[in-house]
Amino acid sequence: MRLSTAVLALAAASAHALNVYRNDGQSLVKRDELDVPGQNPLQFCDADRTDDIITIDEVILTPNPPLAGNTLLIAAKGTVKETIGEGAYAKIEVKYGYIRLVSTTADLCKEIKNVELECPVEKGDISILKSVDLPKEIPPGKYTVTADVYTKDDEHITCLTATVVFGRKTLGGMFDL
């Protein structure tokens, strides 16, 4: 699986209720603290992102939520705090419901070419604009994608997670999921 596919799946996800709970059920992290800014369903994996190499300022998906058979436009802005070079990698997991479909490690520098970037990614502001045609034949169900990204020296770049639910069309759309 290409990293761009996983990133697009992250971008194509609906809101994921990811909270960190204490044993007594009280939330230690407000869900809003995990939400990626902008019109998107993405969430950060961890509330403490002070050591992350990338700061994500905004991600906008059009349409949000994404629809099977439509074109998804992804616009993202952020800041790279230090140069990201060859050897950077992403641990990617894709689940369909509770079933793990993919668990892999991808070469970040090889995959970012799909969004017209290349390594080294220099320190400074960065913008990405990508258009993706989503297939009509996406099987209905809940998909969860997590991408945890590191430098070659295992410094944390970022971690994002999201869930998308694609529904089934029935009786002319009257009972869509």
From TrEMBL:
* Signal in keyword set: yes
Q: Which Pfam families match?
A: E1_DerP2_DerF2
In terms of domain of life, where is this protein from? Eukaryota
List, in alphabetical order, the GO biological process terms annotated in this UniProt record: intracellular sterol transport
What Gene3D superfamilies does UniProt report for this protein, alphabetically?
2.60.40.770
What the entry lists under InterPro entries is as follows: Ig_E-set (IPR014756), ML_dom (IPR003172), ML_PG-PI_TP (IPR033917), NPC2-like (IPR039670)
List the keywords (alphabetical): Lipid transport, Signal, Transport
Q: Which positions make up the signal peptide? A: 1-17
Which positions fall inside the MD-2-related lipid-recognition domain? 42-164
Subunit record text: Monomer.
Instruction: List the PANTHER family hit by this protein, alphabetically.
Output: NIEMANN PICK TYPE C2 PROTEIN NPC2-RELATED (PTHR11306), PHOSPHATIDYLGLYCEROL_PHOSPHATIDYLINOSITOL TRANSFER PROTEIN (PTHR11306:SF0)
What function does the entry list? Catalyzes the intermembrane transfer of phosphatidylglycerol and phosphatidylinositol.
Family listed: Belongs to the NPC2 family.
- Name this protein carries in UniProt: Phosphatidylglycerol/phosphatidylinositol transfer protein
Native species of this protein?
Trichocladium antarcticum
